[in-house]
Amino acid sequence: MDFKKLNLRELLEEREKRFGKAKTLRDKAVGEKRDLTTEEAAEVDGLINDVRTIDQLISEKRAAESRQHAERLNQSFDELEQRASDAGSGLRGPEPEQRDLFDGHSLQQYSLLRAVRMRAAGKPLDGFEAEVSQELAHRSGKSPQGFLVPWGLPVRADRSNREQRAFDATAGAGAIPTMLAGTMIELLRNRVLVQRLGAQILNDIVGELDIPKQTAGGTAYWLGDDGEPTESEQTIGQAQLRVKTVGAYTDITRRLMSQSSIDAEMLIRNDLIRTLAIEIDRAALNGSGEDNQPLGVLQNENIAIVEIGDDGGALTWQKVVELESAVALANADQGSLAYVTSTGGRGTMKSIERFAGTGKTLWHDDNTVNGYPAHATNQLPIDLAKGEGTDLSPLIFGDWSSIIIGFWSGLDVLVDPYSKSKSGGVRVVALQDTDITFRHDESFAAILDFDPSVLVAP
């Protein structure tokens, strides 16, 4: 194997493999109380030599990265000094070759539609799009199946310096989607309800990520004159993020492919991640934790459950208070606390009085429940079952900042020119590596047997 062709991450993996194999051979001989055989000794020597070679390459690559980082910092200082000297005479930006590929100005050059056209024609990417994909692959240490698209890519047309024109893909202007944010990552976040509620986002993860968390603390004791406290220790666990891949696709017609307007470009960018955003949101709320899905709040067996009845039933003020109490008993009633239910559940809660004759309902007009923000979403199931009860809805209360959503690199985009070949269109598939974990399961409590069709007097 030519180790010089490997990136830093691959070198570290190869070093671990070779050192681990050499150690296994040695430990086996020690366990059997014998010397290494001639063949084993030769293999161990070869493995150790490989490790030494890899260590040298790792040192060289790390030194090179340090030099590159220092050069980038120097360029940044030079640029700032130049801008300061140009103040009052018109600021000049850095020359194109000096710009960060992923700053907003540089990304204005990026054309996703051009990249799709080239891949649909069977051509390799070139130009700025190829440079961006290669840099993303280098940073993540991962080769894409197609080409990588940066999350900072704008998804809203900046018309301040552009000709304003309408794009009509069908018979009406309704084909143009509403652009909700300035970049792809912002659009994804805005579409994910749990992030707006306070969930933490980790971008550009490389490899596996373990986040330490304290699962138990020390214990205090009252002592007599000669007493000594019982020894106790903190217990440390880990919140793990492991790569899970979610995919979606959008079909681009032949006529849309031939467009060159900014609206066509933005339409494709927007549609490319719309389905991904919705599915990541659903997984955070109700992911199964199986079949390569992340585990969501509702299916996390470690959260507290407040039950209404054997067959489910009507929601009452008492049960709402029990939800908050379950979180408070776990000392988790802090952070980004909020309620979330289905849209049908919200409607019912607006009709249930906290106390008879007061006119004050469980769900207030200012979208709060008992003083906490309250949200409704169609991402939650409305067909839960319990005993004889069916079509039941959930109600969740908790600290949403306890959820961590991780993303690896940018979008991996593949172009399939065959699925729509009869009509001259192409299918564009987007893959995103992501995962979801919890800092503390105790931060949430849920009711799973709330029947929105049943109203009772308080």
* CATH top level assignment of the largest domain: Alpha Beta
From N to C, what is the helix and strand string? Answer: HHHHHEHHEEEEHHEHEHEEEEEEE
Low-confidence segments, given as residue ranges, are 84-99, 159-181
Task: Please work out how many helical segments DSSP would assign.
Answer: 11
**Tally of extended strands?**
14
CATH superfamily of the largest domain: Major capsid protein gp5
Strand residue content: 15-25%
**Which word captures the global form?**
globular
Annotated CATH topology of the largest domain: Major capsid protein gp5 fold
Overall structural domain count: 2
What does this protein look like?
The chain is an alpha+beta fold and 458 residues long. It has 2 domains: 81 residues; 322 residues, Major capsid protein gp5 fold. The protein is built from 11 helices and 14 strands. Strands 6, 7, 8, 9, 10, 11 and 14 form a 7-stranded mixed sheet that branches. A hairpin with a 2-residue loop joins β8 and β9. α1 packs antiparallel against α2 and α6 packs parallel to α9. The N and C termini lie far apart (74 Å). About 9% of the residues have low confidence.
